[in-house]
Each structure stands twice: as C-alpha cells, then as structure tokens.
Amino acid sequence: MSAILAPDAPVLDEDPFSDENIANPYPFFERMRELAPAVFIAPHGYYAVGRHQEAGIVASDYARFTTEGGVGMSDIRKPGAWRTRSPIAELDPPEHTRVRAALQKILSPLVIKTWKEKFAHRAEDVAERVVAKGNIDGVADIAEAFVLDVFPSVLGINVPPERIKLTGELNFNQIGPNNERVARTLERAGPIMDWYQQVLQREYMLPGGFGEKIYLAEDAGDFDKGTAPLHVRTFFRAGVDTTIAGIGSTLKLLSEHPDQLAKVQANPALIKGAFEEALRMESPAQVMFRTTTGEVELGGVRLRADTKVGYHMGAANRDPRQWKDPDRFDVTRQTTGVHRAFGVGAHVCIGQMIARLEAECILGAVLRRVRRIEPAGPAQWRPVNTLRTLDVLPLTLVGA
Ligand code: HEM
To answer: For ligand 1, atom 39, which residue shows the shortest CA distance?
Structure first.
C-alpha cells in the first residue's frame, strides 16, 4: 500500500528528445505542462516537470530529489551508466557545501572583477572585426570567437576551440538519453578522448588560471584527493557552451526585435536585461535531472521511488503560471533570480557572474558600434539532447 494518497503522475507517450521536439521544443513543453505538474515520460521512464514552481522544488529539495544519482538521465550509481560523477554537481549537502565553499573562494566576486578589463579588451577586438565585416555569423564570429578565447584563458588551459566544442556537445548529449545523438558524437569525439583526459591534468594548467588554483586547493585538503581533474572537467563542460548559447540567443532575439534593440541602445543598462530575457526564452541548459529518494508527492501527483525526475527549465521559463506573455521578448522584464536558466538551490550556477560579465562585455562592445542588427538568413539550431544552442546565425551589422 502506498503511503501517499495522490493519483499517479499521468503517462505521456512522447519523446522530448525526438528530432522534432529538439528543433522546436515549445509545443511539446506546453502539452507536458498542461497535462500535470509531473508527467511520466514512457519512452525513457523518467518524470518530466515543466511548471516553474515544481521545477524549483525538484532542483532544490535534495532530501526528496537527490543529485547523488547524477544530473543526467542515467543513474550514475547503477550498472550501465554512461556518465561519471562530477565532484560538485552530483553531491548533496552537506558534502556538497564544503566543496562548493572551496570553489566559491577560487571564483569569488573579487576574483571575477579582476577579469573585467581583460574581457572588455578582448570584446573590443572581436566587435571591431565583426562590424568591419558587416555580414557575419553571430555564433562563430561573435559568441564563439569571444567565449572560446576568454573562458579557457581564465581557466588556464590551452585547447583548440574545435575540441572544446566537441566535448561540450558530447556532455550535453550525454545528460539526456543514450540515443543516436550520443552515438554519433561519441564516434566523432572518440579520437580525442585520450587527449581530453590528459588536458585536465595538472601539468596542462597554465600559471595563474583558476584550473591551477583548483589543484592547489586539492593540495590544501579542500577537495578529496584525485578530484581536481574532475573539477576542471566540470568547469570545462558547464562554462563554455552554455555561455556561447546564451550570447547567440540574445543576438538572435535582438535582431528579430528592432524595438527591443532600440530600447537597449537608448539605455545600455538594459543589456543585462536582454541577456537574462534570452536565457529565459531559450534556456541554454534545457533539463537537469534528480532522483526520487522515496515515493514522493509533487503538485498533487505521486512519483515512484528511485526514479529519475527531469526539471525542464526551458519549459518552466515559459510557464504562463509564472510569466505574463511568456513567448514575448521583453528586455525590461524582471527575470533575474526568478528564471530557472541558472537552476536554483544549492546547485545554482556557480559561474553565473562570469557568464553575465562575458555577455555584458561582448554585447556592449558590439552594440556600441552598430545602428542596426538585421537577420541575414535563417538561423539554425544545433541538435543537442539537452542544450539549446544555435549552429548558425547569419546577421548583417549596420555600423553606427
Ligand atoms: C549562460 C551560461 C550558463 C548557464 C545557462 C548555466 C546553467 C547552469 C545550471 C542550470 C546549473 C544548475 C544545475 C543543476 O541544477 O543541477 C549550473 C550549475 C553549474 N554551473 Fe553553470 N551555467 C552557465 C555558465 C557557467 C559558467 C560560465 C561556469 C563556469 C565558471 C559554470 C559552472 C557551473 C558549475 C560548476 C555548476 C555546478 C554547481 C554546483 O553543483 O554547485 N556555469 N549552471
């Protein structure tokens, strides 16, 4: 007999990771959200949560929704798992609290502030180049050109951009189901996997980067012995593709909404709002998983014990219960701390200040130099299981 007197979560026999739903997830998100606060996704055997309130509960209530089984769809504690544990993202408090505090010291606001000048300087270079060119790809020429330069340089690793992109794609595919996309990326990434393990090791850390500081913190006993390369891997995975995705989506939305672009140009303080609103509308991380620690009730439905639960932030960030006109791009909307693009609770993104600093520097540098940003062809999304990111964004920049 069940101790929880609530009806079972309804079953939805649809694949959130089908080509169609990955290309345009929003109609599926609406069906899932409107059916119930949590629905059982039959093809993959997990519960999907798409409403804002319940997504917040799943993300943060670790007593009922643990991260110990991993933030991906496979349970990393069980045989056959296709991912290995992150020593920060896949621990519950109190163990997580100690690790997070040590990393927070390495990435304190004071430390991040010292990067500002360097970021601003690099942003000016990128912006100057693209405005001179006029017809550009907003992904390759702006978002990637900037992030793949500044982030590895503060992390302190010297790596070819193409390899960072490939390992990032692999990571965000592997958070989802073990489907064809994973197989195809594994095939492409196979030849560089040995290199990938090596490049995370101490001897590859450049002096002064925060990768080196992670190793020094391990020496000081702040982390368990042997976890430093896995921390570096987590930053590598979490910090690059997400920020590229967010900057790309901001450019796309600004180019499609000249009225909103005009508002930002009239008041550059709104650059922050434009970036946050883009993260809300096209959340880079689309879903993260937890595992039920026992039978639980969520929003009036019953979830089975020891089962994966995905909180779909991409859906929660367009939940009409939370947002007025959720499909409208509005750079003045108050979203910071409310949207779920950075998660919520103990695991809320530790790099959000870095992402914001990068976005403000590069978007500011480009916007200061242009009168208009116009779409110059169809934008294409890259098909990745759990990352909403653009592949190509043709733009025309009209100089000021
Ligand atoms: C727009 C850019 C970014 C987005 C959308 C994003 C998104 C997220 C989300 C949703 C989580 C929570 C995961 C969960 O609930 O399980 C998270 C955690 C994390 N993020 Fe970010 N992130 C971004 C940028 C960055 C950057 C630049 C860094 C690198 C410094 C970073 C490092 C991390 C780490 C290490 C965690 C794990 C924190 C923990 O478990 O305590 N992220 N991020």
So the answer is: 347
